[in-house]
Amino acid sequence: MTNRRSALAMAVIAVALAEALAIWLAFLVPDRRGVWMFAGLTMPLLWSGAESLRRDKDSIRRSVAVAAMLIALPLGVFAARAQGLVAADDAALGVRLVGIATGLIIAAYGNVIPKKLVCFDPMAPDAARRQALQRFCGWLFVLAGLANAAIWAVAPVKQAAFWSMVPLAGALILVAMRFARPAMRKQA
Amino acid sequence: MSNVFKAISDPTRRQVLALLRERPMSAGDLAAAFDHSKPTMSAHFNVLREAGLIEASRHGKSIIYRLKMSVLEEALMGLAETVGLDLGAAAERKGETT
């Protein structure tokens, strides 16, 4: 019950923050009002659509909270720039912050892979292999997510867009190879 | 989170987790790997289960335990092991010098 309430509270706070920023920006930068209104209206519409389609409301609400925070970050930076709180020439700050947040979100999801995706029969003959695979995926995505966030934090934005993908692509390739290994062994 | 710290602070429970890292095991197999009595081991399993680090499922007459640790929890366990080893080494060094 507490988890349910906290998921709902997180989603409501994050969406309200994104909405408030979008409305504020619509007044601050009226010539781009259409963009801000679109950004503001998207979240509640998608949320209500997803809630009506899925039974697992908690996971939807947590995902909505994360997505709304990702939208609120660049909106917040843009609003701060429009108010003169951030240097006007630092146009890449929003992109950098979203990049760092995305890396941290990937690491957070990787963290719970071995805990939440326990979907195999513990008595199955390949239970040990499946467990090892889940742990491997978890560790790999945590490290790749942290590397991604670190690259966005320190590298120049233009280069970070490319180099931040390298650890993620590497992680995906390693996971695919690990998945394919039993089949390759059988063929050999 | 305090439940997790409590669970991984005990060396026996850390060994149970290390065994389960290899593969899911029955309560009997796990208990056989230690010198402790069955009620003591059962208490350890309960602490680990309450902390959400392992999951139990009944298969016929036996209870099968499997690991349910996040990457962060596993890293914390590794840290606890390292700190434990360091403390042990420090205690040994102190014993040599006195």
Using the alpha-carbon principal axes, give the shape of chain A: flat
Largest sheet entry of chain A: none
> Mean pLDDT of chain A, as a whole number?
83
Number of helices of chain A: 7
Which residue ranges of chain A are poorly predicted, with pLDDT under 50 across at least 5 consecutive positions? none
Query: What is the count of structural domains of chain B?
Result: 1
Average pLDDT number of chain B: 84
Overall number of structural domains of chain A: 2
Distance between the termini of chain B: 39 Å
With strands numbered from the N-terminus, the spatial order across the biggest sheet of chain B is: 1-3-2
Shape of chain B: globular
Tell me how many strands of chain A there are.
Answer: 0
Largest sheet of chain B: 3 strands, antiparallel
Tell me the series of helices and strands of chain B, N- to C-terminal. Answer: HHEHHEEH
Distance between the termini of chain A: 52 Å
Topology of this protein?
The complex is a heterodimer of chains A (188) and B (98).
Chain A: H1 2-28, H2 33-53, H3 57-82, H4 93-116, H5 127-154, H6 157-163, H7 165-187
Chain B: H1 2-8, H2 11-22, E1 25-26, H3 27-32, H4 38-50, E2 54-59, E3 62-67, H5 71-97
Antiparallel strand pairs in B: 1-3, 2-3
Helix pairs in contact in B: 1-4
Describe the protein's architecture and organization.
The complex is a heterodimer of chains A (188) and B (98). Chain A is mostly helical. Helix content of chain A is 83%, strand content 0%. Chain A has 2 domains: 1-89; 92-188, no CATH class. Chain A has 7 helices and no strands. Chain A is flat, with a radius of gyration of 20 Å. Chain B has 98 residues and is of the alpha+beta class. Chain B has one domain (2-97): Orthogonal Bundle (Arc Repressor Mutant, subunit A). In chain B, 66% of the residues lie in helices and 14% in strands. Chain B is built from 5 helices and 3 strands. Chain B has helices spanning 2-8, 11-22, 27-32, 38-50, 71-97; strands spanning 25-26, 54-59, 62-67. In chain B, helix 1 runs antiparallel to helix 4. Chain B is globular and about 35 Å long. Chain B starts with a helix and ends with a helix. Chains A and B meet through helix 4 and helix 5 of A and strand 2, strand 3 and helix 5 of B.
